[in-house]
Amino acid sequence: MDYEVIVVGGGHAGCEATFAAANKGHKTLLVTGSIEKIAMMPCNPHIGGSAKGIVVREIDALGGVMGKIADKTLLQMKMLNFSKGPAVRSLRAQADKVAYPKLMQEELQKHKNIDIIEDHVEDLLIEDNTIKGVKLSNGKEIYAKAVILTTGTYMKANILVGDTRTVSGPAGTRPSLYLSENLEKLGFKILRLKTGTPPRIQRDTIDFSKTKMEPGDDKYYTFSFDDKPYYKLDEQEPCYLTYTTEETHKIIMDNLDKSSMYGAIQEKLGTGPRYCPSIEDKVVRFKDKERHQLFLEPESKYFDDIYVQGFSTSMPHDVQEKMVHSLPGLENAKILRYAYAIEYDAIDSRDLYPSLETKLIENLYTAGQINGTSGYEEAACQGLMAGINATLKIEGKEPLILARDEAYIGVLIDDLVTKGVRDPYRLLTSRAEYRLLLRSDNADLRLRRHGYEVGLINKRQYNKLVKKEDNINKILDELKEITIKTDKKITLYDYVKRVENSIFDIEDKLKNKYDYLELEQAEIIIKYDGYIKKARKEADKMRKLENKKIPENINYDDIPNLASEARIKLKEVRPLSLGQALRISGVNPSDISILTVYMKRYFNDNR
Amino acid sequence: MNDTICAISTAVGIGAISIVRVSGDEAIDIVNKIYDRDLSKMDSHTINYGHIVDGKEVIDEVMVSLMKAPKTFTKEDIVEINCHGGISATNKVLELLLNNGARLAEPGEFTKRAFLNGRIDLLEAESVMDMIDAKTENARKLAMNGIEGKISNLIHEIVDRLYDINSNIEVNIDYPEYEDIEVMTIDNIKDITSFIDEKLNKLLKESENGKIIKEGINTLIIGRPNVGKSSILNKLINEEKAIVTDIAGTTRDIVEGQIRVGGVLLNLIDTAGIRNTEDVVEKIGVEKSLGLIKEADLIILVLNNNEPLTKEDKELLELTKDKKRIIAINKVDLETKLDESELDGEIVKICATKDISILKDKISDLYNLEELNNKELTYLSNSRQISLVKKAISINNNLIKSLNDGLPIDILEIDIKEICETLNEIIGESYDEKLIDRLFANFCLGK
Fold first, then answer.
1. How confident is the model at residue A239 (pLDDT cuts 50, 70, 90)?
2. Topology of domain A470-532, per CATH?
3. Which of B173, B414, B444 is nearest residue A531 as measured by Cβ atoms?
4. ipTM of predicted complex
5. Chain A residues touching residue B117 (CB < 8 angstroms)
6. What is the CATH code for A3-194+344-454?
7. Which of A57, A292, B252, B416 has minimal Cβ neighbours within 10 Å of its Cβ?
C-alpha cells in the first residue's frame, strides 16, 4: 500500500479532502494536473456569498481550511443581508486569485502527511468492486485504501466560444480525457453539464468615473472561528457597478446565432446552470428589461484583471469586443481574456451514499463538480466531508452524515443523493427548510463538536467552544435574574426580547464581562425564540421520519399500490429512511403511507 | 398486485338498471368467466351487449362497459356490468363475481384506490366520498364542485400569491445586490396578509354554510315548561318528511330527527326528551342546557304569548343571546300578556298547533336557503379542511403581529411558508421544488 488516501484533483474539493485526510493523520497523495493551479479560482473572485458564506463557516467549524486561507488573503469583506434577519446573514469576501491559491499550495506542500504529484489519473484500479488505487496517464499504478475523485470540470472538458469547440480544461489547462469513459464502464451514469465565465478586462482601460463604487463593510469580520481579522478596513479593494445598455442588447440580439448556446454549435449541449444564465439568456428571456446589472470586480492585488460579473457569454471574440465596448466606462476597455462556456462530464449524484462514497465501488468517494454542483464553497464542503468519511471508513468508524437541520452541508449532500441534479447545483438559502437553525453566527455551536469527534478540531479549539456555550447560558441566566425599570419593572430578558432594544444597551448591567459574539448569540436566541422553537419543532418532525430506516433489502416491486413513478424513483435512489424517501421528487405523501404500512406489515412481523 | 374488488355501485332497489363495478388486475378475467362473450377481444372504453351466465343458466341480459387501465377511475382495469333484472338478478351477478375470485369492496374502496393510484388528489377523493354520502341536492352540488377542482383552484390561487411573495424574498436574500429586482417590503407583505385574511375568512364563512348544507343545521328547540316546544317539534317532524327518526346509539344520539326545509337539513336536537317532560332546564340542569346550546347552530327559543316573561325565560334569553336564534312566540291565539319590547332579534309569532310556516320561512331566510339553492357552491365541506383553513387564518394573524412588531423579513417568511404548507395540506401537494423553479423563471439574475 503506497498511501492511505489518494485525492484526484487539486481544486477546492481536492484541497479540503487532502487536508482532512492528512490532518486526521493519514498518509495522503494529491494528484493534480498542475501544482501551480491548485486551488485556482477559474470563475468569480468570491469566497462566500448568500448561503455559501455560511458553508465556509461550517467548513471552518468542522476543521476545514477554506475560511482560514480566505481570511488571510481577502481583498474585501461584506456581511450580506444584514437587515433581512439573522438566519440569512452571510459573509462574502472578494478573494485574491493569486494570494489564495499560493497560500493553499504552500500549506499543502509543507504538510508532513501530504505528497503531491503532477499527472492525470486516467483509470481506477478495482478489485471485487473495491477501489485499490489509481492508474496515471504515464501508466504508473499507485495503491491506496481509499480514493477521492474531485475532478471538477476537467472530465472530457470542452471550451465553447462562438462556433468553435476546443478540447481543453478551464483557462487552457489539459482536460482528463478517459476517466469519465472508464467510470461509465464501471456502471456510473454520466451527465453532461455546462457552465460559463465572463470576460476579464484590463483595469487601467476602464473609466471608473462612469460606474458606481461598491466598497466593503466598515466592520471587521472573519470566516474562521479561530481567526482575528488580517485585513484593514480602509485598505479594502472596492468593486464597481455598471449596467448593460440598449446597444449591448442590440449587439446580442443581432449576433444571437453566433453564440454557441444559440445555434452556432449544432450538437446537443450540456445543461447549464439556471442561477447563472449567460448574458444572451438574460436578454432573450427578459426582453422587457432595459438593462442588467454588472459588477466590475478586482481579481487580485498582484495583477490588474477585472472580472465582469453578470456578463458570461459564449459569443465569438469579435462580438465580445463590441459587447464590452457598449458598456458605460468600458468604451475603451481592453479584454485580457475572453469569456467562454465550458462543457464537462459529471456523474449522477444519486449513485452516492450520503457519506459521498459511491454505491458501485467501495472506498471510492467523489466530491465537487464531478457530483454536479457548482461553486467553490459547494465543492470545498463536499471535499471536506469526503475526506472525513473516507478516513473514518479506513478507521473502521461510522460515517459523519450531517442532517438538514444541522448544516447547509447536510442540505446540499442530501439534495445531491436524494434528488440528483439536472443543472449544476448551487446552494441557495431557499433550499434549507430550517435555515433559522442554520445561521452564520452559530455554525461553531452546531458543528465544532463533530469536528472534535472526527479529529479535525483540537482540544484548545474545543475548550473555547465549551466556554462559549457556558457563557451564553450564563448570559441568559443573568438576564432572567436582573430587572430594569422602563415603563414598568421588567427583566433584562424581556427588555432584550423587544425588537427595538439591543442587548448591547444593557451590557454593563450584567455581572460578568462577555465576548461580543456571546452577547450577540444570546440576543438572537432571545429575540427569535418563538420562531426558533417553531423551526426546531418542524425539524424534529423531519427527524422522526429520518429515524424510520428503510431496510436495505426492500423490494419495491413487492409493494402493492405504489404509484409507478414513485416505484421507479425509489428503485433509483434507494433512500435510507422514510424522511429521505419523502424528499424524492415524484414520491408523494400517499406513497410514503403505503410504504409505511408495508414496512410495518412485512418487516416488523418477520422480526 | 392488487386484488380485484367488486360492488353494486347503484342504490339497491332503486331504478331500472343497477351497475356492478369490478376493478383490479383480474377484473377482465373474472368477468369473462361469467360472461357469454370474450371481453379480452374488445376495445377499451366500449360498452358491449351480452349475458351473464352461471354455467349454462342465463342470469341476466346485460350491457358490459370495459375500461382498461390506466385511463380509468381507479387507474386499474374496470368492468361495469349494467344489470336489468332487478335486485335478485343483480345480487346473483355479484355472488357469481365473488365466487370467481373477486372480493367485495369495502365502502369507498374504489375512491381509495383512485387516490392511492394518483388518479385524484386528496380533496377530490374527499369530494367523491362526500358525494356518496350526499343526502340533499345541495350537498351533491357541493361535492361536484369539489371534484371539478374549484376549491383546489381557490387554494392554488392563494398559495400562488404567497409563493410569488416568497420567491421574491428568496431572490432578495440570495441575490442581495441585485437592485433592479423589486425588493419585497413590509408594505407588500401587509397587502398579502389582508388578501389572505379576506379570502380565507370568506372561504371559511362559506364553508361553514357548506358544512350546514352537508351536515345539516343542528337545531335546538328550547323553552321553559308548557310553552309548546313539543308541538313545534311534532309539527316540524310531521309536516316535513323525517329522514331519520331516532338514531340513538350513534354519536348524534341527541338528534331527534332530521327534516328538510327547502334544500337544507335541520338536525333537531332533542333536549333530553322534551316531548315527555316539557321541563328542560329543571330536568337536565343549566349546565347541560349550556352544552346543548353550545352544540347548536340554531336555537329556537319558545315563549308563551299568554304569560309575561318569567325569570326562567330571561335566563334562557341570556344564555342564547350570542347564538343564531329565532324567538318563537307561541300561542298567539290566546291573549297577549308578553311584553315584546323586552325582546330583540328574529321573532316569529305562531300558533304551533295550527300553522308553523312562518317559522319555516324564517329559518329559510336566516340561512339564505334560496340563495344557497341557486348559487354555484364552492365550499370546503368537511371538518378536516375547515380546521386547516382556521389554522391558516391563525398563522396569518401571527404574521400580522410579527409585521407590526417589526421582525425581519426572513423571519416573516417562516409564517408565510407555514400558511402555504397548511393550505397545501388541504389539497395534499408539496411545493418545495416549485419554489426554486419559480425563482429562476421569474427573476433575472446570475453572474
1. very high
2. Arc Repressor Mutant, subunit A (1.10.10)
3. B414
4. 0.76
5. 561, 563
6. 3.50.50.60
7. B252
